[in-house]
Amino acid sequence: MLWVKTFHIVFVASWFAGLFYLPRIFVNLALVPPDSTAERERLLLMARKLLRFMTLLAVPALGLGLWLWLGYGIGRGPGNGWLHAKLAVVLVLLGYHYGCARLLRAFEQGRNRHSHVWYRWFNELPVLLMVLAVALVVVKPF
Ligand code: HEM
Question: InterPro entries in the record, alphabetically (predicted)?
Answer without folding.
Answer: HemJ-like (IPR005265)
